[in-house]
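job 3f2a | input accepted
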Amino acid sequence: MHDSLFQRIESKREDLVALTCDLIRFPTVNPPGEAYTPCAEFLGERLRARGFEVSYHRAEGEVGDSARYPRTNVLARFNGRAPGPCIHFNGHIDVVAAGLGWSVDPFAPTVRDGKVYGRGACDMKGGLAAAVIAAEALLEEYRDFVGAIEVSGTVDEESGGYAGVGYLAKQGFFSRPRVSHVIIPEPLNVDRVCIGHRGVWWAEVETRGRIAHGSMPFLGDCAVRHMAAFLQKLESDLYPALAAKRTAMPVVPEGARQSTLNINSIHGGLQEDYDGLPAPMVPDSCRLVLDRRYLIEEDPEAVKDEIVSLLEGLKRDRAGFDYALREVLAFQPTLTDADAPVVRAVSAAIEQVLGKPAEQVVSPGTYDQKHVVRVGHLKDCIAYGPGILDLAHQPDEYVGIDDMIASAKVMAAATLALLGGAGGR
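job 3f2a | predicted structure (425 res):
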């Protein structure tokens, strides 16, 4: 079963590697959103040449979009001989900054020892390339199917996806009856079906003080010291409480089965974006960005109240303490039914291709399923793709070529099942 389809995918190994490398060469770093348009156009033109109807959708007015950094998404659709279910492959084209520690050029892909190295190889240009190859192989094998296949390349997933899947979902592109099933080829390991993610709440806390000369700090009020008091409260009160909260969701890795809190950044005092010595001033403002990941068993309002209660306690007990709290972004946890059609189809295909049962997991971080479910109201959505989750955002990020081939076979076989089988050749 599927022998001819799988052989066709195997024959496209060099094409798959080349496509992955081509995508990596676009330095689609977010922020600020470099090279989105040329990358989207490259992907669109490839799919147009294979018979897809292609359209581009700039998210004008959304966060981050500008004339310099347009948020350009590409959407391609191939309609079968008659209306039927639509299977949509969605991949984000943005990547995080390369950072330090690379042994190869992050945007000049290196193929070595059965792997493709480069920023975005794992997260998730290798997965997007595998989805494209799967779709192309299906169309070459089965031109007479009923239904539709869509492929999208979207932006800004790494910063919330508002101008990518979020924008397209608001336009109706991720809702029934247009789309029936969504597969997002995120790197959660080739033998896993990801059925959801934890919740996230980002917030900025600002502590306030009074400016004065650094030689006479008693005439001012140091906002950094106030922030230090808040940090101490996090250490003594909140972190132990979070470590005790556990979930029944199958979150991977194991450490993410508890609630977590990360301090993303902290900024205090006058900016020092110049040459020379810093200003001798008592800082009157200190800002901290926190990243709270929470479980499906937790109340989102209670997550916020944990922080507010600490701040209010300090305001009551600490002389001069004042603060402001601003929500940066918030997404509730998602969890697709383990018996949903797309979960069953991909799980069965994994067992067929890899010869072992699929593992159902939940992602520690959010991905664009949140927009498909919350905005598009389409619950038949999962993440499945090649790549090792722990390599995402790391130096010397890579994706295994054999894993890309295997995932392309899984995606193709699952699509065929969801379309109801081959209507002809």
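job 3f2a | The chain has two domains: 3-197+334-418, 200-331.
job 3f2a | closed
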